[in-house]
C-alpha cells in the first residue's frame, strides 16, 4: 500500500512499531480500515455459508448448532467489527481534516479505542477455536443466551464489552474534537455534513453504549457468577435484557446510518458540483433522527406482550422518523437537480443508495405499524428490511467512502472501471438476495431457520437469494483486486483529485502528519470551494507559521487492551476452575498498571519547529 | 505554550484547569464521559426497580435494610463532596498545600464510607445469607450498589495517586486539570449515591 | 371504518395478487392469503401501508430518474459550474408536511387494529387454551375442558379462542401466519392472544423466536373443524383412558415396551392432570405429522424413536434413558409405533386432517 511505500525506508520492524504505538488519526484510520475490512470479509464468508445452507429445502451443508453460530457471528461481526470500525476509519481519516484540526482531541485515547476494538473483536472470534462460537443470535436474548452451553456466549459478552469500551472512548473523542478543535471560522453551521453526522453519531454512541455495557454486565454476572437477572427461577426477568439491548440497539442503527448519510452528502454535492440543497434542513434532520432514535427502541418488541398502548405509542414514534429521513432523500435529489452530475464509482454508489435506501425506509414504515408487524416480526421480511437499511445505507456508504477518500488516505485513485464493476455486481447481487426475502417472510419463513421444509413454496425464493449473495461476494473480490492493482501501480495524485469542496482536499494526499502547516481560515460552507470560486488555489492561513505541537506515540494503549484481553479469559474460565482467577488478576493488573503509568508519567508531546517546516517546504 | 510554561508557569491563571487546550479538552471530554456514566447508572437503576420485588422467597429490602448505617454513609459521602469543593477552591487560589490537605480529608471520608459499605455487605452475606445468588433482587442490589462502590474505590485510588505524584512539585497547568477531573468524578459519585440512598434504601424501607 | 377498508382491500387485493400472481406462497401457511381474523387485520394494514409507500416510491423514483437523465454532465461541459442553490422553503415545507399526512393515513388504522387485536373483553365466555412452549414442541391445555394435547391444536371454525401462553424454558413465539400474527411465549409473563379461523382446514404454525438447535423444526398445526366435530373430538379426548390396552398383538408388545421406557414422560390419556414433560400422546393416531415435521407414517415414527437427534437436533428426548442403554432397536420401535398409532380420541380423523393427509399422500 502507498503508505507502506512512504514508510518503507524505515524497515518493516520500525513500521510495525510505528503502527503499534501511533496516535496519528490518519494511521489509526488506516488500521481501522484494514481491521474492519478483514472482519467484513469474515462476516461475508459466514453469510455465504448461511446462504449455501439455505440454497435448497432441508439442506445439510452445516449442522444446526454450527448454523446458529454462523448467524450469530455474522450479525455480531458485521455490526460491531465491520460496520462500526469502518465508520470509525472514515471518521478518523476525515473529520479532523474537515474541521481544520491537526489531530483529534485525545490522540492517546484514539489509539486506545482502536486497540480495544481489535482485541474485543479477536476475543469474540476466539470462541470458534474453543468448542463453538456464540450461538444465541446477535441479539443474544435471554434465557437462550444465559443457558447456552459452552463458552461461546461468554466470548460474545467479554468481546463486546471490550470493543464497546473502545467505541465509547472513540465517541467521546470525536465529540470533544468537533466542539473544541475547529479551525478559525469553522462555525457549527459551516461544518461539512459528514462531520455533522459524525458528531451526532458520537453523541448517540455516548448515550446508547452504556445501556449495552450494563446489559452485558448483567449477562456476564448471570452466566459467570450465578446472578439471576434473567433467570425466571430466581425471580429474574428476561425482558430486561431485551429493553437494555434495544435501548442500545436502535440508536446503533443510526450510529451506523447517519455517518453513511454524511458520506453520501459529501459525494453527491461534490459530483453534482453543487452545494448541498437545504443544508440547514439536513443538519436539523440529522439531529432529529438522532433524537428520535432513542424514543423507539420498543418497536423491536411489538410481540413481547407490552400491550396495545405501548405498541401504539412506539409505532407512531417510529413512523415519525420517516419524516426527517424523507427530508434527507428529497434534499439529495434536489442537490442533484440542476447539477452537473459526473458519474464515477463513488457517485454510482450514491446513486444506487437512493432507491435502495428508499425501499428500506418504506419497509421501515411498514414494520413500524404494530398490528402489521405481528406478521413481519422475526421473519425474512424483517431480515430483508434491515439489510436494505444497513447494506443499502451503510455498506454502500462504506464502499462509496472507500473510493472517494482513498486518494486522501493513500495518495492513489482506485481504478474506476473495476470500481464500477464492483458496484454493479454488488448492487445487482444485493437486490437479488434481499428483495425476494420480503416475500419469503410473508409466505411464512421465520428468520434464523436452519432448514425450511419441502413443498412450502419457499424453494425458488431461497435459491434466488443465494445466487444474489454470491454475486455480492464476487463484487467484494473485485474491490480487493482493485486495491491490489492500484497499490502496485502506485500512481500518485494531487491533493484535490475530485475538484472537491471541503477542507480535507486543501492539503496534500496523503496529508503530512501535522495535517495543516498553518491552520486555515474558514470563510463559509464548503470552504475550499469558496476559495476556488474566488480564484485562489488553496486556503488562506489563519495564523503565521509557528511551531506545531504534536502528541507523543505510546505503546500503552496496546498493552492496556492486551491486559483486558487476557483478563477476559480469566473471567470466562474461572467458572470451571477458580485458579483462572489468577489470569483475571494478571490481566486487570496490566490494564490498571498502564492506567497508573499514564496518570503519573508526564506526557507533554513535542514540537515541530517552524525552521524544519520551512526547510521541508523548500525541498 | 512550551513545556516549561505548562510545568512551571510564571503566572498561574485563575482557572488553571482550563488554561491549556488539553485542559479544555479534558474538561469537556470528562463531562461527556459523565453523561455516559449517567446512562450507565440509569440502566442499573431501571434494572433494580424492575427486580426489587423479585426476592424469590428470600430476604426482602424491608427485612434487610436499616437506615442508621446508611445515614452515616450518606453523611460521610456528602461531607467528602464538600471537602473536595474546598480543595478545588484552594486549587483556583493556587494554594497547593491546602488543596492537598482537603483532598486528604476527602480521601479519609471516602475510606470511611467504603468501610461502612464493606461492613454492610459482610453483614448481609454472612449475617443474613443474602448474596448475589439469592434472588434476582440480590443480583440487582449488589450490582447497583457494588458498581457505585467500585466507582468509590477507583475515585479514591485516583485521588491518592494524584496526591502522591504531585506532592513534591506542586500545582501546574499540566496537573491542574487532573485534580479538577478527579474532584468532578467524586461529585458524580456523590450524586449517584443520593439516588441510591433514595431509591434503594429509603424506598426499600418505606 | 370497516366499509372503506373493505373496499380498499378488495381493490388492492386484486392488484396485489396480479403483481405477485401465484407467488403468494403455500395455502394455509402464507400470511398473504389470510384466513383468520388476526391475519386479516394485519393484512389490511399491510395493504394500506404498501399502497401509501408505493405512492412515495413512485414520486421519489420519478424525480430520481428525471434528474439523472436530465442533469448528467455532457461532453464538453466539464467546466460548467451549476448555480449553487441553498434551498427552497416552500419545497421543504411540502416534503415535510405531505409525509406527515401520509403517515397519519397509516397510523390510524394501525392503532385501531392494534387495540382490536389486544381485546380481551370476550375472554371469559370463550374457549381458553393454556399454551406451553418447550424446546421444541407445544403443549395445549384446554382450561375448561380439562384436557390437553400437544402439537396439534383443535379449534372450532368462526369461534374466538383465547390462548394464554407461557414457556417453560426459553422464549418462543407462536405464529400461524394464515390465521393470526405472532405473540411471544415467555418464561415469566403469561401473554394472551386470540385467534379466530374463517375456514376449516389444517394450518401451519411456526415458532418465530430463536430458541435453539431445532428452532426451525418447532412446527405445530392448528386444526380448524366444525363445531360438531369439535364437540366430538373434545368428548373423545375426555374419554381417553390411561388404562388403555392395545388390541393388535404387536401393539401389545409395543405397549409393554412403552410402559418400560416412555410412559414416565409421555401420557396416553388427555387428562390435564398429567404433568407436561414430553408431548401428550392421547390422540397420537390422528396426528398429521410425526415430530411436527415428518409425514405421518409408521416408518417415520420408527426412525424418530430410534434416532430422535437425526430429526430434531437438541430435543428433550435425547435425555431418555433408553437411548443411552440402547434398549430399543428397529424391531422394538416398530412395535411401539403400532401401539402409538392405535391411540386415538376419535376413531376417524376429523375431515380437515383426513384431507390434509390425502393431499400429503398426493405429493
From TrEMBL, chain A:
Enzyme class: translocase
Recorded GO CC terms: plasma membrane
Keyword Heme: yes
Native source species: Gracilibacillus orientalis
Function text: Cytochrome c oxidase is the component of the respiratory chain that catalyzes the reduction of oxygen to water. Subunits 1-3 form the functional core of the enzyme complex. CO I is the catalytic subunit of the enzyme. Electrons originating in cytochrome c are transferred via the copper A center of subunit 2 and heme A of subunit 1 to the bimetallic center formed by heme A3 and copper B.
Gene Ontology biological-process entries: electron transport coupled proton transport; oxidative phosphorylation; respiratory electron transport chain
UniProt subcellular location: Cell membrane
Keyword presence, Cytoplasm: no
Chief localization: membrane
Name this polypeptide is given: Cytochrome c oxidase subunit 1
Reactions accelerated catalytically: 4 Fe(II)-[cytochrome c] + O2 + 8 H(+)(in) = 4 Fe(III)-[cytochrome c] + 2 H2O + 4 H(+)(out)
Catalytic activity, EC: 7.1.1.9
Superkingdom classification of source: Bacteria
From TrEMBL, chain B:
Signal peptide segment: none
Keyword Manganese: no
The keyword Transmembrane helix appears for this protein: yes
Topology class, membrane: Multi-pass membrane protein
Ranges that cross the membrane: 28-49, 69-89, 101-122, 142-164, 184-204
Residue span, Heme-copper oxidase subunit III family profile domain: 1-205
GO biological process: aerobic electron transport chain
InterPro entries referenced in this protein's UniProt entry, alphabetically: Cyt_c/ubiquinol_Oxase_su3 (IPR024791), Cyt_c_oxidase-like_su3 (IPR000298), Cyt_c_oxidase_su3-like_sf (IPR035973), Cyt_c_oxidase_su3_a-hlx (IPR013833), Ubiquinol_oxase_su3_dom (IPR033946)
Keywords of this entry: Cell membrane, Membrane, Transmembrane, Transmembrane helix
Gene Ontology CC entries for this record: plasma membrane
Domain of life: Bacteria
Single GO term (MF): cytochrome-c oxidase activity
Cellular localisation: Cell membrane
Family, similarity comment: Belongs to the cytochrome c oxidase subunit 3 family.
Protein name (record): Cytochrome c oxidase subunit 3
Organism: Gracilibacillus orientalis
From TrEMBL, chain C:
Residue intervals of the Cytochrome oxidase subunit II copper A binding domain: 124-236
One Gene Ontology MF term: copper ion binding
CDD domains xrefs: CuRO_CcO_Caa3_II
InterPro entries: CcO_II (IPR045187), CcO_II-like_C (IPR002429), Copper_CuA (IPR001505), Cupredoxin (IPR008972), CuRO_CcO_Caa3_II (IPR034236), Cyt_c-like_dom (IPR009056), Cyt_c-like_dom_sf (IPR036909), Cyt_c_oxidase_su2 (IPR014222)
The record's free-text note on cofactor binding: Binds a copper A center.
Cofactor(s) named in the record: Cu cation
EC number(s) stated in the UniProt entry for this protein: 7.1.1.9
Membrane-traversing stretches: 41-69, 90-112
Domain Cytochrome c span(s) in chain numbering: 249-347
A cellular component annotation (GO) from this entry: plasma membrane
Membrane-topology annotation of the record: Multi-pass membrane protein
Annotated family: Belongs to the cytochrome c oxidase subunit 2 family.
NCBIfam families in UniProt: CoxB (TIGR02866)
Protein name as it appears in the record: Cytochrome c oxidase subunit 2
Organism: Gracilibacillus orientalis
